[in-house]
Design a protein that fits this description.
heterodimer, A: mainly alpha, 65% helix, 0% strand, globular, B: alpha+beta, FAD/NAD(P)-binding domain, Glutaredoxin, eight-stranded mixed sheet, 13 helices, 26 strands, DUF2783 (chain A), DUF2783 domain-containing protein (chain A), FAD/NAD-bd_sf (chain B), oxidoreductase activity, acting on paired donors, with incorporation or reduction of molecular oxygen, NAD(P)H as one donor, and incorporation of one atom of oxygen (chain B), FAD (chain B)
Chain lengths: 66, 536
């Protein structure tokens, strides 16, 4: 299903990244946090650029959606 | 002062058809003297086809309605007459600004590409547009062309037969019956023709209302398209400001779904909204107010026997994108040459089915674009709004987010990819002139390319040999021989050859490419002519 999307561990210093992510949300209201996530998503999507990878990423994320 | 849209332009007069013992038979009847019906009739009259336009009214459209006309439509006007009066009267524009809350987040420039006769867009009130088309009708009449408009002639019933249609027409002096070999219904989004024939109009209605107002004011706003998301003067909604000729400004204000339309249209409710937008001190007059709902719908097919549907009667889109009247003009552009060949017995009736399939394809493209714009302008869920606002916020700082901002994807002509009339692409040429494409214009020493192409089937040779003319099964093809030596701006080379050394194009009467290859090959081009006219 995901021929192009990397779904194995790929972030060097995963804990540091996760801490950065939480820090960005610190002190924000739920609305402001949601807006930050939306902006982050769009920034990352543009960096990836490849529509095939993006479609696979949407599908991977949607697996848990009920 | 009496307005152009208050003056009867084609007042009712009694016609001998109304006293005929047996119903008079016309070649083509067009229902509706709007932009599309008039364009269809003019195109037919240019080809020498007798045509009668029936309209239930006797005036041009009330209020500005369609105001943005794109380059391709101006080119079509050139083909059926001249776009000069439209362009001279219209307002040219190419800059758009997008505001979010109080901030300007994004500015776009349509950057009209050099080397086209016509600008990317003009704004012109639909009543002026129709008025100029009526002028063209009068000009054709003075030259003896068989074209006629009958005002206050309302079609009340339609009978479909194998080889003609019968119409019951209501006039101020009673009703009469007439017949036509072919009927073109251009009677708008609420098409009575569609209803009388019991045909569906399927699609989506968006639960939102927009107030649309034409305001006359002396204002120093620039000639730009200004679009606001969530502005302070219309919180949580959107707004549009766009200039028209004669100091008339178009304003669209999103109102939401649960409103009382009649209440909202009252000047005492409209004026405070406009003052909030324009400023308390700005003096203006209200010329026209209306409320509309976004709808994206189309008929399953645009041909039903001898009846052909065009314009809003066949398909409807939401307005931010100028895809209504513009796409309707592309309908008749596509239809009229086919109908002429069928009427002359030079092509099978099935050629008209390609009108339906090509323009259904075009309508779907417009509906897709229009639906996406609408989903951006009026988000349907909290998350949709969150993502929309994220795009707008990012667009202010970062270039990458700007293409995602969708305040309307402006009309561009449809390329009929996959049409049964196309021959396989046999030239390693540019994408923009692949089979199915509308021919891109190019400046030449003797004028612009599109003017030279005109409205006949053409063999365009660029640095290639070919016959001056040839006939295939009754259809004549004339050559237009060009060379990149006479191409000072290299536009011809860039738009038609790319890296190829030469090119031969078969171009349809509606100036769409039917076939292309590097050199002339007689059997292959004969086959391409048959294919382009529905014979294989």
């Amino acid at each position: 299903m995901s021929d192009n999307l990397i779904l194995t561990a790929n972030i060097d210093g995963a804990d540091d990244f996760y801490a950065d992510l939480l820090a960005a949300h610190e002190g924000l209201s739920p609305e402001a946090s949601a807006a930050l996530n939306a902006r982050l998503l769009l920034v990352l999507a543009n960096h990836i650029g490849d529509r095939t990878v993006l479609a696979e990423a949407i599908a991977a994320a949607a697996r848990k959606a009920k | 002062m009496s307005k152009i849209f208050e003056t009867p332009l084609y007042p009712y007069t009694r016609h001998p058809d109304q006293d005929a013992a047996t119903p008079a038979r016309h070649k083509v009847i067009v229902i509706g003297a709007g932009p599309i019906g008039l364009a269809a009739a003019i195109d037919l009259a240019n080809q020498g086809v007798e045509v009668l336009v029936l309209d239930d009214n006797d005036k041009v459209s009330f209020g500005s309605r369609a105001i943005c006309f794109a380059k391709r439509q101006l080119e079509i006007l050139d083909r059926i007459g001249s776009a000069d009066p439209f362009v001279e009267r219209g307002v040219e524009w190419d800059v758009g600004k997008v505001f979010f809350d109080e901030r300007e987040v994004y500015k776009f420039d349509l950057l009209a590409e050099e080397g086209h006769r016509r600008p990317a867009f003009i704004n012109l009130q639909q009543y002026h547009f129709e008025n100029f088309l009526v002028d063209r009708v009068r000009e054709l009449q003075s030259q003896g062309a068989p074209i006629e408009i009958r005002g206050q002639n309302k079609v009340e019933a339609i009978g479909q037969h194998d080889d003609h249609v019968t119409l019951e027409v209501e006039t101020p002096e009673g009703s009469y019956t007439i017949e036509a070999d072919w009927l073109i219904a251009c009677d708008g989004a609420n098409s009575p023709t569609r209803r009388m024939l019991g045909l569906d109009f399927v699609g989506r209605v968006f639960e939102d209302n927009f107030l649309i107002a034409d305001v006359i004011m002396e204002a120093d706003f620039p000639t730009e398209r200004w679009f606001w998301f969530d502005p302070p003067f219309n919180k949580g909604q959107s707004a549009l400001l766009h200039k028209q000729p004669d100091n008339v400004w178009r304003i669209d204000l999103q109102l939401g779904w649960d409103i009382d339309k009649e209440e909202e249209k009252k000047p005492e409710n409209v004026i405070p909204r406009l003052k909030a937008m324009l400023g308390e001190d700005v003096k203006f007059d209200l010329e026209w107010v209306s409320i509309y709902t976004f709808q994206c719908r189309r008929m399953e097919k645009f041909r039903h026997g001898r009846t052909l549907f065009a314009g809003d009667a066949a398909h409807q889109v939401s307005p931010f994108g100028a895809r209504g009247a513009n796409s309707g003009m592309q309908d008749t552009d596509n239809l009229v040459w086919k109908l002429k060949l069928v009427m002359d017995g030079k092509a099978p009736e099935s050629l008209l089915d390609s009108y339906s399939s090509e323009r259904v394809y075009g309508a779907d493209e417009n509906i897709t674009n229009s639906t996406r714009s609408t989903d951006f302008i009026t988000p349907k869920s909290d998350m949709s709004r969150l993502l929309r606002d994220a795009v707008l916020d990012l667009a202010e700082d970062f270039e990458f987010a700007r293409p995602l901002v969708n305040s309307g994807r402006l009309s561009v002509p449809c390329t009929y990819d996959g049409s049964s009339l196309n021959s396989a692409d046999a030239l390693a040429g540019p994408d923009i002139s692949r089979p199915g494409s509308p021919c891109p214009d190019a400046p030449l020493p003797d004028g612009f390319l599109l003017d030279l192409l005109g409205d006949k089937l053409t063999l365009l040779t660029i640095d290639a040999d070919g016959p001056e003319s040839f006939e295939e099964d009754g259809i004549e093809v004339k050559r237009l021989a060009l060379s990149v030596r006479d191409d000072p701006t290299l536009a011809l080379q860039r738009r038609y050859l790319g890296s190829a050394a030469s090119g031969v194009y078969l171009i349809r009467p509606d100036q769409h490419v039917a076939a292309r290859r590097e050199t002339f090959d007689e059997p292959l081009f004969r086959a391409a002519v048959r294919r382009a006219t529905g014979k294989e």
